[in-house]
UniProtKB/TrEMBL annotation:
This is Fructose-1,6-bisphosphatase. Belongs to the FBPase class 2 family. One of its GO terms (biological process) is glycerol metabolic process. Mn(2+) 2 binds at D95, E98, E224. One of its GO terms (molecular function) is fructose 1,6-bisphosphate 1-phosphatase activity. It holds the Pfam family FBPase_glpX. Mn(2+) 1 binds at D41, E65. Substrate binds at E98, G99, T100, Y129, R175, P176, R177, D197, G198, D199, G221. One of its GO terms (cellular component) is cytosol. It catalyses: beta-D-fructose 1,6-bisphosphate + H2O = beta-D-fructose 6-phosphate + phosphate. The keyword Hydrolase applies.
Amino acid sequence: MTAAASQVLDRVLVLEMVRVTEAAAIAASTLVGRGDEKAADAAAVEAMREALNSLYMDGTVVIGEGERDEAPMLFIGEKVGSAIGKGPKIDIALDPLEGTTICATAGPNSLAVLAIAEEGGLLNAPDVYMDKIAVGPGYPEGIIDLDKTPTENINAVAAAKGVPARDLIVCVLDRPRHEALIAELRQVGCGIMLIGDGDVAGVIATSDPETTVDVYMGSGGAPEGVLACAALRCVGGQFKGRLLFRNDDERGRAAKWGITDLDKQYDLSELAKGDCIFAATGVTDGSLLAGVKRKKGKMTTESVVMRASSGTVRWVKGEHRTD
């Protein structure tokens, strides 16, 4: 990244990212508990796109709502920003409403999430599943490996932490596809935190001792994996990911975005490299952030914004007038 572009990121985009996630979270919050996932997601998408287009940048969505024929806005490859062709070139990964089902049912940990990096800094991950494992900071490099069994990974983390495996907590998405994984983890004896949705928050939880989560395991969306890696780059931790393909159509989509090694095990720095910025605003209350609250004449939001180059983490509480 050029010095000029870096200065623009410092001065404008770091905290402006919070404005973008706040806009999406506030829009989605009007539909919390209403049972309409699509309406909540559409409201968040529209608000995030409008906010992104107000920023001075030449942005490209590399992780978005789908390809051009599937999503009307914030699709993969869409250009956003007010300085297309002349501003700093920025790659953008986003999920305007991480946990659409959570929002629709008023569950915990629904977020508006965004990550940016210099051009080429974020993997153009297709909308397929990804096998994932993550731990927080403080472990020897290479402590986790998708070529090892869950038992081997748990025992390695436990040994490095200096505790028995039964003292570890593993976060896993509560899905039928994880029945064998959950059974093996229970056999090892560690605790399991099952979550209904929102695996970006699940991965990030490994970096925060307050959550008690030591390891994240299981398969989830590849785009969410890239977003989570951008956050871990800022706060520390390790992540391994491998794309999972169910059919030739999904393999073709991967090839379209330049992925040739379909069996590759990706490291954290390969999914999100360079100077990353990660921002999230709570839609509903969760372990990471409080959700949007409405009071007479105002709304309150809670957000976090992180930067890889400085290791800075800022917690931002916003108060927004509604009159």
